[in-house]
Amino acid sequence: MLETITANRSEKAFDREKIHAGNIGLNVDHAAVQIEVERLLASMSLQQKIHEIRGWQAAPIDGLYYAGGDEALKIPAYKMVDGPRGARTGMATAFPVAIARGATFNVELERRVGLAAGLEVAAKNGNVILAPTINLLRHPGWGRAQETYSEDTFHMGAMGVSFVSGAQNYVLTSPKHFALNNIEMTRFEMSANVDDRSLHEVYLPHFKRCVVEGAAASVMSAYNKINGIYCGEHPVLLDDILREDWGFKGFVESDWFLGTRSTAAAINAGMDIEMPVGYRFDDEKITEAIAAGELTEETITRNAGRALYQKIAFDLANTVVPDASVVECSQHIELAREVAEKSFVLLKNKAVLPLSTSQRIAVVGDLADVPNLGDRGSSMVTSSEVTTPLAGLRAFGDEVAINYYTSDADLGDIGESDVAVVVVGLTYKEEGEFIPTQQQESEGSDLARGGDRDDLRLPESQEQLILDVASKAKKTIVLLEGGSAIEVSSWVNEVDALMMIWYPGREGGHAVARVLFGMVSPSGKLPVSFPRSISQLVDWDITALDITHDLYHGYRYLDRKEEQPEFPFGFGLSYTEFTLEGLQVERAEDRFFLNVSVKNSGNTAGAAVPQLYVSYLNSSVERPVKELKGFGWVELEPGEIADLEIEMSDQELCYYDPHHGWVLEACTYDFRVGQVSDNLPLESTWSFDGKDWLPE
Ligand code: BGC
Is the CB of 375 within 6 Å of ligand 1? Predict the structure, then answer.
């Protein structure tokens, strides 16, 4: 008899072909576009060129911010709309916030979110989505943490570029805020002070990946300063790095209102479009600057050319607006649910989850019954329907018996239920983009603050609620809502299970039910370290106007200080178990291919997230203890095995030398693979002598 040898299914951690399929920006005939840009510019007056480099008016028109465009010249306008969790105008699919999507560690899923959000923006007649937000979570107290994916640059780049490529099937993207915008309360004035090495190694690689690999069509500059110079008029940032080093061909637009601080300095530095309106770029100011010799007509022409470039590259003059029925269509709603399910991070489970539908369940806490989609800043999305955790659990099936207790209800009989599910967390009042007027309006006279958090604990009343429930209920499960790390040390030992559900989007409640009842095994991993206490992290002062940025924050900082957080970066439990084995490393040209087999060694289907970290054993420069350099997402039936291939180029191993640029140094590199950053059992060590690579 012939023996059948079946090879394991094999998957790529990041399948470039799949991720980048259909990205219009990657299929541009640049020579032809340049010819057309020059033809147009030759026919334009100075006035017409100036019109191309600014927005139309402060308020959106039918939800869209317009910039440039000239009917007589057949030049279409840009029509921009936020943002990071879906289309901000009218009703749209509210996806889980970006930090939740970061927790999926699933790049193909993020590409699909990009596709869906881009399609909805296009169907609303927009042609630029003001997303993704890819500012590093230097500190989890950042108010806009929920809008971004991660504390780690590699992870951020992989997620960000996947969103970009998905969305650019339909519209232009605008990764933001370029750069080092990671505090909210002082965002308009703060100077992020950073040395060249940290800038290039930590704060820029994810922007570079979106621009170089994803051909992001535009970039939004940040409000803050870098080393004392506003980002909106920073020649090194906008010109030397973005254009010269990275070959960016699109346009830079300012962040709204305060993103442009000057006329000549901004235009000269490479701020191409002032948004939302030409306040600094108005006719008079520009004419005066030209007359004063501060600005030349050639520079206006250059910037107008950049503003025109993507209109031609993306053929915006011939865009067909998709039918409005794609907005909140069933596929997008299902996707929102799938993403939520895959984003939940199970942080603790003392044999209480999954639940069975025959158990009597007490659901506790006001937040269980409140749509909680995230902040009410520029990334706010309104959906026609939102399923809360309580509604989702109730809708799961008629057999489910639920008693609901509001936060101030008498818990006297809660012990009669088999298990209590407490829903606690943060809302737009405690964290988010800080736009006081908008937030006050949405809440009547009640001041809803948002902004940064200077304390990572839950509001006291919620901590008390958890402790009360835990002291009375047979078993206590806590579901945490929020956009970033929350300190849980004062109560986590008292509860049986804890799951981070972030701001889970319009379908969050259905996702909660499906995960709690075991239809889906949790597979989310933390994209931000959860400290035991804020004192374990870098200094954080939400009134600071000068902040030093260096190589260390998040897990890099904790590693260096030998601090053990409550839950490390990359951590997340599952209902099943996975074993990783047989790490094989091959080298080809300028890169490594690491192969690992992943086995579902438990009894339920689930998804594993193998993670690759690199350490530098005898480096001549100071380096972090370890850095994430690859990760994959592998779904497996019980007993199933798949091979995962992680590709890592030499560029990932370089450090940045301020005088010589990227350096691949002769030293020993330790590649370690595991399922969480603090436990990496598989290892392969390679040495580079300046010429050849040898395994140890
Ligand atoms: C935010 C941007 C946003 C813009 C337009 C600004 O306040 O910082 O992220 O895209 O508003 O809404």
Answer: no
Q: What's residue 446's pLDDT? A: 61
- The CATH fold assigned to 330-561 is Rossmann fold (3.40.50)
**Alpha carbon distance 179, 176 (integer Å):** 7
46-318 with 578-687: one CATH topology? no
645-671: pLDDT as tens digits? 999 999 999 999 999 999 999 999 999
Tally the residues of the chain: 696
What are the helix (H) ranges across 517-627? Answer: 554-560
CA–centroid distance, residue 378 to ligand 1 (Å): 5
| Residue 692 designated active-site | no
Q: How far apart are CA 670 and CA 624, in angstroms?
A: 13
Domain ranges, ordered by start, for the chain: 46-318, 330-561, 578-687
Average pLDDT estimate for 476-481: 99
Alpha-carbon torsion 629, 222, 183, 491, what sign? negative
Does this model's pTM top 0.70? My answer is yes
Residue 482 Cα to ligand 1 midpoint, Å, equals 21
46-318 classified as CATH 3.20.20.300: yes
CA distances from 119 to 107, 129, 321, 527 (A): 18, 10, 9, 27
pLDDT digit string (tens) for 2-24? 455 567 899 999 999 999 999 99
Is 255 close to ligand 1, i.e. is its CB under 6 Å away?
yes
Distances (CA, A) of 630 to 204, 410, 647: 17, 49, 7
Question: Chain centroid to CA 653: how far?
Answer: 23
- Among 277-291, 420-434, 438-452, whose mean pLDDT is lowest? 438-452
CB atoms within 10 A of CB 399: 8
Q: For the domain with range 578-687, which CATH number is right: 3.40.50.150, 2.60.40.10, 3.30.460.80, 3.40.50.720?
A: 2.60.40.10
| Residue 1: pLDDT band with limits 50, 70, 90 | very low
pLDDT in tens, 167-224: 999 999 999 999 999 999 999 999 999 999 999 999 999 999 999 999 999 999 999 9
Q: Is 407 in the pocket of ligand 1 (CB under 6 A)?
A: no
What spacing in Å lies between the alpha carbon of 493 and ligand 1's midpoint? 40
147 in ligand 1 pocket by Cβ < 6 Å? no
Kindly indicate the confidence band of residue 449, based on its pLDDT and cuts at 50, 70 and 90.
Answer: confident
User: How confident is the model at residue 445, as a pLDDT?
Assistant: 54
Chain-wide mean pLDDT for the chain? Answer: 97
Distance CA 651, CA 663 (A): 9
